Structure formats: C-alpha cells, structure tokens
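Bench notes, afternoon.
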Amino acid sequence: MSDLFADAARERLPQVAPLALRLRPERLEDLVGQRHVVGEGSALARAIAEDRIASSIFYGPPGSGKTTLARIVAATTGSAFEELSAVSASVADVRAVIARATERLGTSEERTILFLDEIHRFNKAQQDALLPAVESGLLVLIGATTENPYFEVNSALLSRTQIYELEPLASEDLAVVIRRGAAELGADVPDELVAHIAGKAGGDARAALNTLELAWQTARAEGAPLAERHVDDAARRRPVVYDKDGDAHYDFISAFIKAIRGSDPDAALYYLASMLEGGEDPRYIARRLIVHASEDIGMADSRALLVATAAAHAVEHVGLPEARLNLAHATIYLARAPKSNSVITAIGAAGRAVREHGALRPPKALRDTHYPGAKKLGHGQGYVYPPADPSGYEVDYLPDELKGRTFYEPSGEGEDAD
C-alpha cells in the first residue's frame, strides 16, 4: 500500500513542485551559463558526454547550477548514482554507500557515482571515511558546496578531486531562465520586467524563478497584469550571501582595499556596505583601514593615518550601526587621498638590509651615554646636536657598513615629495 502512495506522490510531484525544480535542465545543452566550465569542447563537458567524469567538487553561490550539473551527470551516466546530503548523512551512511559500490563492482562491474550535497558540512571523520573509496576509484565523488573547498575540505580529499568554480549567472543568462519560466507558467512578462527580476535575483537562477512564480501568482489572484510592484513584493530583500568565516571574508576585504588603492570610493563603499550587512566585525575593517593608510597612502597624505585611527576609535566607542558612518568617512577619505607606497617600500628595504647584514651596531657617536663609563668607551664622541648645529642634519646616521644606503625614496605623489 505504501508503494502505491509513493508512486502516486511521484506522479503528482511535478504539478506541485516549485517552478525552479520543474525547470531544472536534464541535458547539458539546456544548462544556462557557466560556459567557462561546461562550454562546448570543455574538458568537463566531454567527460560528462563520454561518461568518464572523475571525482569533482562544484563550488559556487546558490542558484549557480551545482546540483543541476550533478543531476545532468545522473541522467547521462551508465554508472549507478547515489546521493547523500552532508547535512543529514552519517559515517554509517557513507559506509553503506561504499558497501553497495563494492558489491556492484564485484558482481556487475558497474561503477558508482556518489553525489554529496553541501560537502563542506562533512566533518573530518566523515571525509576520512570517504577517502579510501575515492582514492581507489571505487567511488566517483561529486561534491557541491557554497563554501570555498580549499577552506572546508581536507587536503587529502582535495588532491583527488577536480575543483570547478561556478559563477553567479549574468543578467543575460538570467533573462533566458526567466523567459523559460514565463513560458512554463503561461505568463506575459515584458522585457523590462524580465530585466527587473534578473536585477533582483543577484545571479541566482533559483531566486529568479521563485520571484517570477510568486509575482505571477499574486498578479493572477488580483486579476491584474504582472507589474513591477508584484516583482518587488515577491523579491522583498535579497539575502546577503556573506560567509564571514570563509572566503567571502577574504574576497571582500581584498576587493575593499584594492578599490581604495585604486581611488574608487564608490566601489570601496559598496564592499564596505556588503561586509557590514553580512555581519563582518567592524573592528577588523577598521584595522585594515589603519594598515592601508600607511601602506598605500603613507607620506602622500599622513593625515590618512589620523583619519583611519579616528574611525577605529569611533568603532570602539560608538559601535554599530552609527559607526558605519565613521567607517564610510574614513573609506571615502582614503580612497580620494593621493597614493604612495614609499613607506612599505622603505621598511621592506631596511628589513632586507637587516636580514642580510644583521643588526649592525650604531656608530659610537650615536650610542647611549646615560650610564657612568659610557664616555670612557667613546660613546657620544663626535655627536653633533642638530638644533644647535645644522651640520648635524647632513650626517649619515647609518652604521659604518651601510653608509650611503638609501631605503626611503619619495614617490613624488601628494606630500611625498623630494
């Protein structure tokens, strides 16, 4: 009896399943986007077509096609296809899959492909349980993850897989997906609304189709044509995809600093807002601003260090949300400031000299004279006090072995002039 109910449920599922699930491509040629990974003639496309795919991890943001790619492999392969979700699977589940794979290979020479969704959720023990089967070729592993696998998957497993990074879908790719969805729904969606839905989706095909479906249902319930207000109501606020403990943490702060370095205040503010909306620690951002003020602006505008330090002080004493204004203030100032890397270049050159020659003793004229007997050792003899005798400004104060060396070279930018 239970099988009858299960069969009936499977037959009715396409009628009640979300639009995104109903439209999931089953053939590689129907997949939208990701041409850099599965374009015609690519290694992965050939491997899927010829049913020789190797262990792989598909890594990318939600709605970029990771699970869809795995389903396409399932639909085209002659191998047995097993599926586990790392959210709920245990080591026992992994061992059961390995046992079935061993039996298939021994009895019918059939390969087994294991699709492991959310592979980053597997702990070390679970990943270790998979390793021997993947290493021996008993299992072909296909993992899917929104997290950077280089952070979340152990190195032994990584070394035995190909990593494919999927990108958020471009607006033109999302437009194709949305028009397919409109055809499935029998909905009239003008081009301007297609573009509006694509803009709201943020590169996520699933989000685009979910927005379209809900907006269309709302419009039909009202007996009105689909309008922008329906889309806005269905989309609401896009969630900020920001893993503050993973690669987004590093990618966004990197983009933030590079935008400031490139004197682009608008881009810098966008990355700042993304980090703050995603829950990044504002103290971390403030620390990076302080470093940047000396690293990339430095002597060209020494006030930048004061502004950055003041912003960090404000973060500690004011806190969010108000301190976002102080961070934005510092970000704009630093982005607009003239740039010079003479400080980091100078300390780098000095450091190399220390590593090459060691910490050479200062000349005796510069050594400490505060203790009894120092002068008997010759300390301080010949020292010229510059405020009393300007010739002291012309002295080379380096150790004798390094005299004549120059570490600081003014860049000529802003106040960093010769």
